[in-house]
């Protein structure tokens, strides 16, 4: 049986999950950017949006992190590319940026890779709970580009089941929520408001022991 969210944590986890969903309305863009992570669903979403005509080119960006090296030993972007090819995306429609080790480098190195091309708009494709942090980072580091965010359209319970590790998902959600504030303070991202109910849910989850991804 797949792991499921404990009833006593569900409301707080859902509050963080909903907060990180930017709810952007998809529209065509010049390029889709798949941000590397442990979640192969990012590459699936990128391929689906490519086939839907949302962009003519995909950049997959990412080297490895401690959480991904075992699953993607050749690098996140490389494995994403291979998955997209399996899903029918043409090889000449994919660019790979294999060096980035964090979201800031994802944006900086992808921007550098595309500097010879005219890029006025991008779709950032990420894990569902990475949307807000990715958006804030892009607005800081690539302010002139029009950016919208996208992820696989999965309810929270379905996403937890797809990952197969409820503690990992909660720890990631808590860590990304902390980074919204910390990264803005450090100048890595633009500031984002955190509603009181989200801050309270975050505090309760930290007190419950979900600290693995805290800075």
Automatic annotation (TrEMBL):
It comes from the Bacteria. Residues 43-148 form the DUF218 domain. CDD domains: YdcF-like. Gene3D superfamilies: HUPs. Transmembrane segments: none annotated. This is Uncharacterized SAM-binding protein YcdF (DUF218 family). It comes from Amycolatopsis roodepoortensis.
């Amino acid at each position: 049986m797949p792991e499921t969210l404990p009833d006593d944590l569900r409301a707080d986890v859902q509050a963080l999950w909903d907060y990180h969903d930017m709810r952007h309305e998809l529209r065509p863009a010049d390029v889709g950017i798949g941000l590397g992570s442990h979640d192969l669903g990012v590459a699936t979403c990128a391929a689906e949006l490519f086939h839907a005509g949302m962009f003519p080119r995909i950049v997959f960006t990412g080297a490895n992190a401690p959480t991904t090296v075992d699953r993607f030993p050749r690098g996140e972007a490389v494995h994403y590319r291979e998955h997209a090819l399996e899903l029918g995306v043409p090889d000449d429609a994919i660019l790979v940026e294999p060096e980035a080790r964090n979201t800031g480098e994802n944006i900086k190195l992808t921007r550098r890779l595309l500097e010879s091309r005219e890029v006025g708009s991008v779709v950032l494709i990420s894990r569902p709970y990475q949307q807000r942090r990715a958006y804030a980072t892009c607005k800081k580091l690539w302010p002139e580009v029009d950016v919208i965010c996208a992820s696989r359209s999965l309810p929270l319970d379905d996403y937890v089941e797809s990952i197969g590790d409820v503690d990992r998902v909660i720890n990631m959600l808590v860590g990304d929520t902390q980074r919204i504030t910390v990264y803005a303070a450090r100048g890595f991202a633009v500031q984002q408001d955190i509603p009181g109910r989200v801050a309270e849910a975050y505090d309760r989850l930290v007190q419950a022991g979900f600290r693995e991804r805290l800075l």
